[in-house]
């Protein structure tokens, strides 16, 4: 049975590098793969960009309204027509930007079409809240694998701090693509809390005071 894999990590944990390496490994053994990414990510248009310098275009983009099963089937047919060989694997970059329904489609591709799907993405946003695609992947993927990176203090980074210039910000839209004004820094929990002044979610926390416990 083919499986849906979710390989997640903080920013700069080498997700695109790992994806391109996985594609290379398949192709080195003579297999065909398809690479996809959500069109919401405009960082490199169709390009899947590794920070190590390797870049490759996605075979197709998934728009917000696209049925991933249908779009995958179209491109699978094209590969079979062009090469006479079937696709061995679907690799999806920036999977955090998929809708939940599109993640369900990825699961259907694995289960019903028998094609393994490897999805790579960021687990949580700059407010430590799961992206919709990542939340659904955490719920339904057969296999979860964390790609690790290191905070400036040397601990494992698990969160993504958003910065305007030198200043960390903790309010704003969930999606602000890395660019000239907005940058991200992967942080461990301790450093995140230091920068956020103790905040961990988008909702201001009012701690319920349980009866009988007085500070
Ligand atoms: Zn740290």
UniProtKB/TrEMBL annotation:
<keyword id="KW-0067">ATP-binding</keyword>
<feature type="binding site">
    <location>
        <begin position="175"/>
        <end position="179"/>
    </location>
    <ligand>
        <name>substrate</name>
    </ligand>
</feature>
<dbReference type="GO" id="GO:0046104">
    <property type="term" value="P:thymidine metabolic process"/>
</dbReference>
<comment type="similarity">
    <text>Belongs to the thymidine kinase family.</text>
</comment>
<feature type="binding site">
    <location>
        <position position="184"/>
    </location>
    <ligand>
        <name>substrate</name>
    </ligand>
</feature>
<dbReference type="InterPro" id="IPR027417">
    <property type="entry name" value="P-loop_NTPase"/>
</dbReference>
<dbReference type="GO" id="GO:0005829">
    <property type="term" value="C:cytosol"/>
</dbReference>
<dbReference type="InterPro" id="IPR001267">
    <property type="entry name" value="Thymidine_kinase"/>
</dbReference>
<keyword id="KW-0418">Kinase</keyword>
<protein>
    <recommendedName>
        <fullName>Thymidine kinase</fullName>
        <ecNumber>2.7.1.21</ecNumber>
    </recommendedName>
</protein>
<dbReference type="Pfam" id="PF00265">
    <property type="entry name" value="TK"/>
</dbReference>
<dbReference type="GO" id="GO:0005524">
    <property type="term" value="F:ATP binding"/>
</dbReference>
<feature type="active site" description="Proton acceptor">
    <location>
        <position position="94"/>
    </location>
</feature>
<keyword id="KW-0547">Nucleotide-binding</keyword>
<dbReference type="GO" id="GO:0004797">
    <property type="term" value="F:thymidine kinase activity"/>
</dbReference>
<keyword id="KW-0808">Transferase</keyword>
<keyword id="KW-0237">DNA synthesis</keyword>
<dbReference type="GO" id="GO:0071897">
    <property type="term" value="P:DNA biosynthetic process"/>
</dbReference>
């Amino acid at each position: 049975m083919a499986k849906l894999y979710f390989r997640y990590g903080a920013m700069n944990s080498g997700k695109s590098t790992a994806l391109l390496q996985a594609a290379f490994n398949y192709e080195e053994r003579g297999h065909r793969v398809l690479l996809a990414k959500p069109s919401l990510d405009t960082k490199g248009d169709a390009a899947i960009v590794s920070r190590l310098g390797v870049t490759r275009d996605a075979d197709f983009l998934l728009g917000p309204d696209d049925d991933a099963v249908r779009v995958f089937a179209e491109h699978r047919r094209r590969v079979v027509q062009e090469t006479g060989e079937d696709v061995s694997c679907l690799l999806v970059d920036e999977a955090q930007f998929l809708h939940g329904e599109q993640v369900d489609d990825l699961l259907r591709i694995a289960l019903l079409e028998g094609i393994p799907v490897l999805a790579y993405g960021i687990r949580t946003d700059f407010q430590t809240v799961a992206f919709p695609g990542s939340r659904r992947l955490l719920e339904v993927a057969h296999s979860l694998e964390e790609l690790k990176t290191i905070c400036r203090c040397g601990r494992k980074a698990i969160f993504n701090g958003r910065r305007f210039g030198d200043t960390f910000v903790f309010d704003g839209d969930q999606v602000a693509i890395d660019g000239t004004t907005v940058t991200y820094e992967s942080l461990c929990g301790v450093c995140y809390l230091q920068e956020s002044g103790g905040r961990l979610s988008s909702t201001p926390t009012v701690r319920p005071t349980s009866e009988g416990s007085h500070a």
